Amino acid sequence: MALTLYVDPVRWRAHQDVVTRQFPGMVPVVRGNGFGFGYEALAEEAMRLKADVIAVGTTYEAARMKDVYSGRVLVLSPYWRGEQAPALPGRVIRSVSCVESLRNLRGARVVVEVMSSMKSPGVSAQDLHLLRSGVEDVALEGFAIHLPLNRIGGPDAAGEVVACMERLRAAGLPLHTMFVSHLGAEELDEVQRRFPHTRIRARIGTQLWLGDQEATQFRASVLEVRQVVKGERFGFLQGKVPSDGCLVVVSGGTSHGVGLEAPKDLHGVVPRAKNVARLGLATANHHLSPFVWAGRRRWFAEPPHLQVSVLFVPQDVPQPTVGSELVARLGHTVTHPDRVVDCSAQAWPATTDAGTSDPASFGPASFDSAAFDRACEVV
């Protein structure tokens, strides 16, 4: 019994091939948990795509990757003087974001990050001229710029890259390669036309691995179903059951990433109102789980455990059966499944509830206030 990530390999790889054609010279980003697939699997995919460079987040990820990937490995986190890094082979490329770091990496492979409108680490426009002497002492792989996802005012994405490259050229720096992040295919083509003698290389992660959402699906095994009555106490916290129904134990807990949530940047009245409602429910200890049953996400009966979660299913909803699977709407970048299974979408294991295998289950669930009143009555 496991939390499983099912992957349709044909569809998944077809999308990768489309992205590869759109972005010649693309650098696949393989970092963190490997977008839920595992870094070993993504390293194999990068080699299938004939990528000569991959990008990872940290030196520790680079150390793990060196045994499963034979090409160059670009560490995105900038080098800082005095860091405690593991031993790395010479094919690892370090990012630097200031002149001092460049001077401490004599002889190393280096990519110089240039500050963008994100204001993330990078060499400022005023300091570019200071790089001229430093780049002569390293194996310069190129320059890089990391763009914001949203653009509010100022130049468009291509315009910002062009302006950056013009400053680099004006500073007399060797501009043979430029790495970019969050630049669209048409925008990349535009920049390439402006700088035909510079190789423009897009660093792509989410769009490459997760661009086709219907190629993957998380599912959790049902481990136990237990009948309960209203007011009965249960679980670690000995809370009361809100109404007659059943407690459903499913695989997947905090060690898998279940229950993890990043802060959201909310815009507009409706998203803010929904967030206020969610916080109000949380104050009353009502937390919506990512697990889908009978076409709806079910409520946690109590906070998720280390490796399992306990859900509450009210009496008027059909019960799942032990051994079946529930679709789980989980974020790839925070989820660590027990296993990854290659399986075409047509052959994904069926469940006893048609609603859980409906492709529409990937979308947001509608809120049924009547069902909530019945299932989560405060006792």
TrEMBL record:
Residues 25-150 form the Alanine racemase N-terminal domain. It is an enzyme of class 5 (isomerase). One of its GO terms (molecular function) is alanine racemase activity. Coiled coil: none annotated. It comes from Streptomyces fildesensis. Its EC number is 5.1.1.1. This is Alanine racemase. InterPro entries: Ala_racemase_N, PLP-binding_barrel. SUPFAM superfamilies: PLP-binding barrel (SSF51419). Keywords: Isomerase. Signal peptide: none annotated.
